[in-house]
């Protein structure tokens, strides 16, 4: 797999290099120079999930890693299912929350951890990442206990749910967590500053594990295939997928799946009030506003990191921009959608509910719709119980960590303070 920096065409990388570097020069994102298409998509869809995912990832990564190595990585990473659950006659939820931290980020996080362990073979690495909620938990669990790899996770203090926080602040060992007194965009900026700082980047062998890492993105392509594989051939004919979006990694992966030949007619980029992309799709003007805290906090992102990759897919002629439309769901409609889903017998959390609402608004007669269920409702228990007025039970993984002690350190939104902390921990 050859990749090129979208900000500097002379900065090229192999898959292994891009996985290790995360970002290219000038904070540019790596993007494949060529996206291959399957000749016989039905044959691919007929395979079981893990076997099919090995085919997809081999197609994307190429012969840089032996197929048997990719197979081992996939088997260890994708050890849980992605079922499609019927919600109405023509609407399904793709449940991506059956992994250890109960959100879709387990797919990318675990695949990335396994790739890095394979590629780095004993070299020392520091993973530095910012989380708006679920990335932190997925990355922390995926790397917990690995030799020679330290993980530092920044999160916006008090802006994510307590259970979300407990899932990654209670592990200890090689997992270090820092509560920053600011919002997620500020945390993301601190991470970028660290990558721009030669002394830190080289000295601590930094690697990023948020949705900009190419390994996470390619892993996510696989569950779009798994969704379509569970539909009848009739339902595959006119399919719309609604993606609850924050940093837009999930949607990027879906669009790559379509480029590879997966029969998806249309995508909906569903956001909360942090609606930079839906406004951009309507007006052509890129005008991020200050980030607003919402019920769907994992999508409280006003400057989505992955957007240049979606632009690249369109600009390079892989897809027409008409395959994508946006929709913004406000706080009230998020709750309305959760109640409507509950009436249909489907308990959901705010992120999935936003995707559902946008889908219902845009789905046309005769079409089949899928919305992505990005997190388990219990992960947002307080909100779900408040909105639905009914108690929900905690899965065992959450119940166990809810009672454990958290290990995070508090820091102000100040790069010098972060840098000093990093060297005191790891230097
Ligand atoms: C991260 C996250 C999202 C947003 O996904 P992106 O790939 O950043 O667009 C949506 N829902 C949940 C529950 C998440 O954790």
TrEMBL record:
GO biological process: threonine biosynthetic process
Cofactor or coenzyme needed: pyridoxal 5'-phosphate
GO molecular function, one term: pyridoxal phosphate binding
Catalysed reactions, semicolon-separated: O-phospho-L-homoserine + H2O = L-threonine + phosphate
Top-rank EC class of the record's enzyme: lyase
NCBIfam families: thrC (TIGR00260)
Pathway: Amino-acid biosynthesis; L-threonine biosynthesis; L-threonine from L-aspartate: step 5/5
Organism: Paraglaciecola hydrolytica
Family: Belongs to the threonine synthase family.
Keyword Lyase among UniProt keywords: yes
Name the record gives this protein: Threonine synthase
